[in-house]
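Hey,
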Amino acid sequence: MREYLLNIGPTSQKLVYLKSEGVVMSQRLLVVEDSKPIATVIKQIARSLKFDVVIATDLAQVENILSSDTDFFAATIDYALPDALDGEAIACVLSHGIPSIVMTGKMDDETRQKILAQPVIDYIPKENSQAFLYLKRVLHWQQTNSQNTILVVDDSSSARNHVVELLKRRNFNVITANNGVQALEKLAQHKNIKMVITDLEMPAMDGIELTNEIRRVYTREQLAVIGISGASNGIHSARFIKNGADDFLRKPFCPEEFYCRITQNIESLNNIAKIQHAANTDYLTDLANRRAFFRSAESRIKEYINKKVPYCLAMIDIDFFKRVNDTYGHDIGDQVLKVIALYMRKHFGAGLTARLGGEEFAVLLHGLDADNLYNKLDDFRREISVSSIPAGNTTISITLSLGVVFDSLDEFSKQMNEADNALYAAKENGRNQIVVFGAELND
């Protein structure tokens, strides 16, 4: 995920973080801590996660701050403060609807139960440096969990609402279903669901049947399933796992265990997604790489042919790119490649774009007709030809040659050869032009 920082106005100092998922305003963290060294560590952690930090050292300061300002994404709260020795600051912050993480040096079970009885995100014993590493993970989860959608399936409204409340406390996006049949309908409607938490005992379709049906469609790399049951029979956990579930919880469960299981499975899915992204993405331009393009383009072309959708396959090459590297160095050459990728996203947002290797790119487009598609390619070529690209203390201009195939019924590999032949003709004919495979090559 790429991140850029922009000023949103000449009179405003607030930053906007532009990410692939959208625009997110900088977030604020309230740190309630009377120990200056600990407050400093938490502040450093928060700033590494792009938080703006406000510090309060006692309950009086907390009350003063919140009397006029409650716009905080989250808070960390020291359990014992000079004027609030028994966790009074927790209730104060929570009363303003601010999600809170409790930091405590008290390790007894009574204190733990008192903290967990309140709707806190988590509590962290201040035992050693691992506590602060865990705090960073929790804050990061709070920032990113909204990108993860979880489907909760239970015929009991009270049980379902309890799970939903726990998940929303951790900032997850939550969808609910009353039974297995409805759950399958929700999965078909919402393609972004990452996890299903399902009860065992339900009418129409129980949790194990649902899990089995889910695994007919979704792999473990695409969707996690956690089974829940209040039955005392220990065989249910094994049945869930053998039918495709990733984990199991027995009711009533401890919120701490619940969060650990949820987080572990979500992190596993996210790590798999990162590995898959790295395997399918060009490291320099963040476009699809050769392997990913070939796989996706082949399946898309078959669909376009079956549905009689006009399409084109184009290969793109930077003219005299070796001269750029030799004259300005490979760092500038890399910058040129990145700029080409940015323009490709601008002009071909709905298409499939890729860097095939070196200075060679490819794009697969579909549209209204061949003229419409050709104009998109030529607009892209023309804009590149009149653009200036920064190169140290100067700027450089580049041009592109393109070879394109329209609405071919040939196999994908043959279409790529045809586009490559057209690209070669464009180079031979003087560069900075588009050659269409077919009539132009046969003239």
